[in-house]
Amino acid sequence: MTVTTTAYVDSPIGGLRIHSDGTGVVAIDFGADPVEPDSPRDAVLDAAVAQLREYFAGERTTFDLPLAPRKGSAFQRAVWKQLGDIPYGETATYGEIAARLELGAFGARAVGSANASNPIPVIVPCHRVVGANGTLTGYAGGLDRKQTLLDLERGPALF
Fold first, then answer.
1. Which of 34, 45, 76, 146 has the fewest CB atoms within 10 Å, i.e. the most exposed one?
2. Banded pLDDT at 37 (limits 50, 70, 90)
3. In the predicted model, is pLDDT for residue 94 greater than 70?
4. Catalytic residues
5. What are the alphabetically sorted keywords of the record (predicted)?
6. Best CA proximity match to 140, nearest among 122, 153, 158
7. What is the pTM of this model?
């Protein structure tokens, strides 16, 4: 059994708990409570905390962290890889991701299912995936969090 360490980040979308196994980020949980200050940490956690704080401060547009999700089929991991290719401040539809993966007519639904099972939200930007008409659709952290993340990435409104 691999031991994981955890850290807490306060953010505009609420508390986030980051889990690491020392080789990579394993998971991120929404709605977390702070971790005890003397909780063990590792270099991956320290980097993840720093990069998430920079992201939420508008100072980082990409993450440079090792990832080590403990779950996920080959298909899910292929979808998660595509999520990482969606540029900061932009969105893609489920259908567009399905087309990139050369899936058939019902591929968008399969992409949606894989997107929903992403264990490392924010860093693996599943919030950047929208419905065919550009509407916000399902997000494990809730649509309010998804909207907040998209607004953060789009920057302040000019008018």
1. 34
2. low
3. yes
4. 126
5. Cytoplasm, DNA damage, DNA repair, Methyltransferase, Transferase
6. 122
7. 0.90
